[in-house]
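Ticket #4471: complex job returned nothing on first submit. Input attached below:
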Amino acid sequence: QVQLVQSGAEVKKPGASVKVSCRTSGYRFTAYYLHWVRQAPGQGPEWMGRIHPNSGDTKYGQKFQGRVTMTRDTSITTGYMELSNLTSDDTAIYYCARDDPYGDLDLWGQGTQVTVSS
Amino acid sequence: DIVLTQSPGTLSLSPGETATLSCRASQFVRLSHLAWYQQRPGQAPRLLISGTSSRATGIPDRFSGGGSGTDFTLTISRLEPEDFAVYYCQQYHIPPRTFGQGTKVEI
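Support reply: We reran it on our side without changes. The output follows.
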């Protein structure tokens, strides 16, 4: 079954870091870019960046440069997104999504709620 | 960054009616790089339309997309109860890919 399964909800204090995982199955992990998108309450989705699982090549949104790190472990077909120096503005649902050959995000994880609160 | 402005913010309709959603880009977007997503409450977005007008796998033909340049539309004919959701347009013509703020289709 083709799917992306993300790690569970996180509650973090301001200044902390969070690392979300995205376990993939049912397709060739190294053949498709993996993107990370977040969605704050009541807002539209916001693209954070992407990684190519084969090469490890990453591209981050300018807003997140210096604070986000995307990695992968090809042995367990899992991608990771780590966001550091969290503030309350980072409270959101974080999604991983697969990029199909045409550039569309055709497969999404179920989302991971990250709450930043003192 | 390309800004996508969706209108209206909310569309109140009844089952069986037709919904017409608009997405206006702040600059030119190539046809092949405009997509629409549906998001139901508590769920992840789901790809509906790619390349402006191509339905994704399993999407019924009640959904159709069109437009060009800076103006794009999503039309939902014969609204079904499961179509009441939020719809987002998204471009990836010029990085970073950006999303609109969404149109909520409600009963």
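The mean pLDDT of chain B is 95. Closing as resolved unless it happens again.
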